[in-house]
Amino acid sequence: MTWLSSAAHRRWLEGETDRLLAFGRAARTAEGFGRLDERGRLEEGPSELWITCRMTYVQSLGALLGRPGAGALADHGVAALAGPFRDREHGGWFSAVGVGGAVADEHTLKDAYPHAFVVLATASAVAAGRPGARELLDDALAVQLAHFWDDDAGMVVESWDRTFTTCEAYRGVNANMHTVEAYLAAADVTGDLAWLDRAARITERVVHGFARGNQWRIPEHFDPHWVPDLEYNRDAPAHPFRPYGATVGHWLEWARLTLHVRAALEVAGRPAPTWAVEDAAALFDASVREGWSVDGAEGFVYTVDWQGRPVVRERMHWVLCEALGAAAALHAVTGDPRYDAWYRTWWDHAATHFLDHDGGSWWHELAPDGEVSRTVWGGKADLYHAVQATLIPRLPLTPVLAPALARGLLDSTT
Hints:
about 425 residues, mainly alpha, Glycosyltransferase
């Protein structure tokens, strides 16, 4: 029996889901959700949009799982997105708000990355039946079409000024990756397959184009014409959102998303890409070959250069989470036992090194020697990746997580 087919393992995953959800309760602020430190205490500072959206998302998942209190926290997130985070003058959402709901920076950019999470959070809240979520989702999708989706490119642009007047020249793959996830959720809860088609267009260009054309080392940074800038941020290699080089964890994330897109297209009666499984497997294999324990120490390195050599060697919890999700997804599609073997290896690694049963949640970053590091990520601000790692193995590839839970598909193979 594989772990991925084991009822006992699924019970263990359920316990880990609950442990993570309980840790996140302390993140509530008056304005939304804030960052938690390594002991689960709320840090001082503004409430950030991307964190508020991710917490709203995971608490919507908790509500769908029937966890008492999760629905109220999801409602709090929806209220924050409808209230202090919303720019009623120019549209869209502020990136951060301070105490009392004051905008943390009047000159803040409106980025595609957190706006994708507005879509994911509100779509998931719709799936969970939370009041007011559908109106917010409709608004978020309107903002996507008005400002972020570039139909000629088949991608989203990166960011605007507050008034949506000036668009940043930079284009990035990270924001597009999370937009794929958001658009899949939007398609599931609205029934509008145009969002699925957009997700498929982004995925094909990134995976079957940029990744395949660059030995699976996905270029992350581009100019306005989608010409890659391979030297971008060479002097800031440990940037949390725009690091230099290729980000190994994103290869794993794209592998999984490719399989979600393929499954959704098949169910919708759309032609599914014939390259999807092969490309997802190639991304997975590249991540193992160039990312896993390549420097003499156990774990995934954060980034590599364009020859596949490690650049930032710190181990990020989110990369390991995405490895688990990709292994589960590829096993579901292919049945190949090697994916179950990697899945076991990586959960063993997570349990030994990343799960913090004293302070709660997961350590977000470790040094190559396994000690806690804070080069890129301090504290424990994020539950999104870890919660997903506990649920993806228990759900089908389509619909995505929240709609699948809403349809009663937990631990279903259909």
